[in-house]
TrEMBL record:
Signal sequence range: none
Superkingdom of the source species: Bacteria
Protein name: ATP-binding cassette domain-containing protein
InterPro entries: AAA+_ATPase, ABC_transporter-like_ATP-bd, ABC_transporter-like_CS, ABC_Transporter_VariousFunc, P-loop_NTPase
SMART domains per the UniProt record, alphabetical: AAA
Organism, scientific name: Ohtaekwangia kribbensis
């Protein structure tokens, strides 16, 4: 899937966004991946969805951002206290996942230009400023098809970090990052505005701060 939002976001004001989850469950065929989840994901917090490989972290993330319908329970979003329609949630979110594709035929600069024609950049960052902040200036005209796995991951994370969004979903954010890139990831995570709600799916404790609120998916089997 290409990270290509369908909706123009120019009229979306940045406010606090809460996800309200009641008795949420998801199953594939007869197997419950999780159920009975009651939670409120509040602005300004970092949440860590933890659990072993295959336990359901990515599935929960996809249900929370509205890509996958739940099998049970309800999911509501409120924005600055006002209920918002689930179909418009894409206007408020930024996502970085390992299974989200970049556009191979684009150069780095073209990939960013494409994305930010559709989404607003945080703090009106220019494309050149973003590339500099990603430490990828020498690769600005390089095709994505020639990027290493670590460079691709840095681009995916940058698209999420540099998009103006109230909710940021990061699935296994440290994938393929070397030490230097990992430090960059933690720096950008900390630089997100305080009103943002950040949800990280990971079984690597170094990928989220120790102060993150943890949700162990195994508790909801
Ligand atoms: N579309 C699908 N149809 C059927 N089963 C699925 C589907 N998507 C995921 N699953 C199953 O749901 C379970 C949870 O998968 P998920 O990818 O959410 O786990 P995860 O905790 O993110 O794993 P990992 O740490 O390996 O990324 C797995 O058993 C997986 O096979």
């Amino acid at each position: 899937m290409t990270q290509s939002p369908a909706t123009n976001t120019s009229s979306i004001a940045t406010q606090s966004l809460t996800i309200h989850v009641e008795n949420l469950g998801k199953r594939f065929n007869r197997e419950w991946i999780f159920r009975g989840l009651n939670y409120s994901f509040d602005p300004g917090n970092i949440y860590a969805i933890t659990g072993a490989n295959g336990s359901g972290k990515s599935t929960l993330l996809q249900v929370l951002w509205g890509q996958m319908p739940p099998s049970k329970g309800t999911l509501r979003y409120t924005h600055g206290g006002t209920e918002i329609h689930p179909e418009t949630i894409f206007n408020h979110i930024a996502i970085a996942t390992p299974y989200m594709d970049l556009i191979e035929e684009f150069t780095l600069e073209e990939q960013l230009e494409f994305h930010f024609k559709l989404k607003r950049s945080r703090n009106h960052l220019s494309i050149a400023e973003m590339i500099e902040r990603m430490y990828l200036t020498p690769a600005r005209h390089k095709y994505i098809s020639n990027f290493s796995s670590g460079m691709r991951q840095r681009v995916k994370l940058a698209l999420a970090f540099f998009t103006e969004a109230d909710l940021v979903f990061l699935d296994e954010p440290g994938t393929n990052l070397d030490h230097q890139a990992f430090d960059w990831y933690l720096k950008e995570l900390n630089a997100l505005p305080k009103h943002c709600t950040v949800i990280v799916a990971s079984n690597q404790p170094q990928e989220y701060p120790s102060t993150a609120q943890k949700i162990d998916i195994m508790m909801y089997k």
